[in-house]
Design a protein that fits this description.
There is one protein chain. The protein is of the alpha/beta class. It folds into 2 domains: 174 residues, P-loop containing nucleotide triphosphate hydrolases (Rossmann fold, 3-Layer(aba) Sandwich), CATH 3.40.50.300; 109 residues, STAS domain (Transcription Regulator spoIIAA, 2-Layer Sandwich), CATH 3.30.750.24. The chain is 40% helix and 23% strand. The protein has 10 helices and 13 strands. Strands 1-7-2-6-5-3-4 form a 7-stranded parallel β-sheet, with helices on both faces. The chain has a 6-stranded mixed β-sheet with strand order 8-9-10-11-12-13, sandwiched between helices. Helix 1 crosses helix 2 and helix 5 packs parallel to helix 6. The chain starts with a strand and ends in an 8-residue tail after the last strand.
């Protein structure tokens, strides 16, 4: 069964196979944000800096996380503890997880959510196999108000392990249609809106041109579509000069009735765009508004 990240509830045990690090942080952040909205306590098992990437994406998404992190609603399980957990006897691990869920309920939370980067579960010296760990988690989900997201990326799991875990999970997280080359990720969030993440250079610049062309074509063909082609740029951490020039030239080619709007551009990227003529392009505008699902 395919489920949407924003619609998960207690007892859901979903898996996802992210295409890249950007995709992994996107999935994790949406899962955590959903738990915050439902007043659940979040347990994020860290490994290899995954927690930092998730928190960064929460910030880029405009999700307030400082207070939940300070009060303990978001609890980051340190990497050393994550690794130690998979060396515990599996029965003890299962009871420990169940105990933390009920402790969260006693604190006043509606339930708990669990996710993170836990590829140490397949390293030598663990107390059980990957399917056995997943089965133990499933047993906890059956008797506590817990929601879990398991992620299996190709960087840390073999194709065989991923295939096994995909088959074991009844529910899978819907993966938003996107372009993802491991360097840059594009996700459409509406007919004339998209979200960009990562780095844009000569290797993927043509994908931006295609995105702008198709979005403008949609806007021109539909009487109901917005006259603004909106790209959220909060997660774009690098853009080369040639790409900045291409953004400016693309905007200059827009008809007078339409505009290219770049949302939440980072200062470093903004400086490059400014040096490449963005302030002089009448059809190019900037905004600080967060992304929306509006069409």
């Amino acid at each position: 069964m395919i489920k949407i990240a924003d619609d998960l509830s207690s007892g859901d045990h979903v898996c996802a196979i992210p295409d890249s690090d950007e995709h992994l942080s996107e999935l994790s952040a949406r899962f955590v944000a959903g738990g915050l909205r439902q007043d659940e306590k979040i347990f994020f098992y860290d490994d290899a800096g995954a927690a930092d990437a998730m928190l960064r994406r929460l910030a880029e998404d405009g999700t307030p996380f400082e207070k939940p992190l300070r009060t303990g609603q978001i609890e980051i399980v340190p990497e050393r503890n994550t690794r130690a957990a998979f060396r515990m006897p599996i029965g003890a691990l299962s009871e420990a997880v169940a105990g933390t869920v009920w402790a969260a309920v006693e604190e006043g939370y509606a339930g708990a959510r669990l996710t993170g980067q836990m590829h140490s579960s397949v390293e030598p010296g663990t107390s059980a196999t990957l399917p056995e760990f997943d089965g133990a988690l499933d047993s906890v989900l059956g008797r506590t108000p817990l929601t879990a997201l398991c992620t299996y990326d190709h960087a840390h799991y073999t194709d065989e392990q991923i295939d096994i875990m995909r088959a074991l999970h009844r529910d899978h997280l819907a993966l938003t249609g996107a372009y993802d080359d491991g360097l840059m990720r594009i996700v459409r969030i509406g007919a004339t809106r998209a979200r960009l993440a990562g780095e844009i250079d000569h290797s993927n610049r043509s994908k931006i041109a295609s995105l702008l062309h198709s979005s403008l074509d949609t806007a021109l063909r539909s009487a109901d579509a917005s006259t603004d082609i909106v790209l959220d740029m909060a997660s774009v951490r690098f853009m080369d000069v040639a790409t900045a020039v291409s953004f400016v030239h693309a905007a200059e080619m827009f008809p007078a009735s339409h505009s290219l709007v770049l949302n939440r551009v980072r200062p470093r990227v903004q400086r490059i765009l400014d040096r490449c003529g963005a302030p002089l392009a009448s059809q190019l505008r900037f905004s600080d508004r967060p992304p929306t699902e509006a069409q």
